[in-house]
Amino acid sequence: MDGTQRDNVTEVRIPFRDIDMHGHMHNAAYYAHAEAALSGLWRHRPTVRNEPAYLVRRSACVFHRGLRYDEPARFIVNVSKIGGSSVSFAVRVEAGGQLVAEVEIVWVAVDPARHAPVPLPAATREWLTGYLL
Question: Mind telling me which Pfam families this protein's record contains (predicted)?
Answer without folding.
Answer: 4HBT_2 (PF13279)
